[in-house]
Amino acid sequence: MKDELSFRGILINFAITMNARMAEIRRKFAEFDQDGSGSVSAAEAHQILEKELAFSSAQSAELVARYDQNGDGQLSFEEFVIFYSKVKARRV
Q1: CA angle 40, 44, 49 (to 5 degrees)
Q2: What does pTM read for this prediction?
Q3: CATH code, domain with 42
Q4: CA–CA separation, 5 and 74 (whole Å)
Q5: Mean pLDDT across the chain, nearest whole number?
Q6: Which range marks the domain in which residue 58 is found?
Q7: At CA 52, angle to CA 72 and CA 34, rounded to 5?
Q8: Whole-angstrom Cα distance, residue 5 to residue 26?
Q9: Can you say how many angstroms the Cα of residue 75 is from the centroid of all Cα atoms in its chain?
Q10: Is 91's pLDDT higher than 80?
Q11: CB atoms within 10 A of CB 50
Q12: Looking at residue 5, what is its pLDDT?
């Protein structure tokens, strides 16, 4: 019985952590998506990456291109989730 409670506690903690992480990513997406278009352009990404990580425009464009899976030159929210995970890891 105790193992069930421990496992349940782990699952609850995991769900809480994932909800908090997605909320953080949504906030960052809104910060990057400065024009409110629902996607992040290389120029929008560069403004944040330059300020926070001292990226050049070429570095920003390369990073956006790497995670732009559909090749439209923008990051959708789904693409941004992966992109932001990599950016956040560079900050740590």
Answers
A1: 110
A2: 0.78
A3: 1.10.238.10
A4: 44
A5: 89
A6: 2-91
A7: 45
A8: 31
A9: 10
A10: no
A11: 14
A12: 67
Over residues 17-56, the pLDDT tens digits come to 888 889 999 999 999 999 999 999 999 999 999 998 999 9
Range 52-58, long-range pairs (CB < 8 A, 24+ positions): 52/91, 53/87, 53/90, 53/91
Name the token pair of 91.
């900050």
How many domains, the chain? 1
Q: Report the distance separating Cα 40 and Cα 46, nearest Å.
A: 10
- Do the beta carbons of residue 42 and residue 56 sit within 8 Å? no
Angle at CA of residue 22, ends 18 and 26, nearest 5°: 170
β pairing state of 74-75 and 40-41: antiparallel
Amino acid at 25: I
Quick check: helix, strand or coil at residue 74? strand
Among 54, 34, 44, 37, smallest CA distance to 83 is for 44
Cα separation of 51 and 48, whole Å?
5
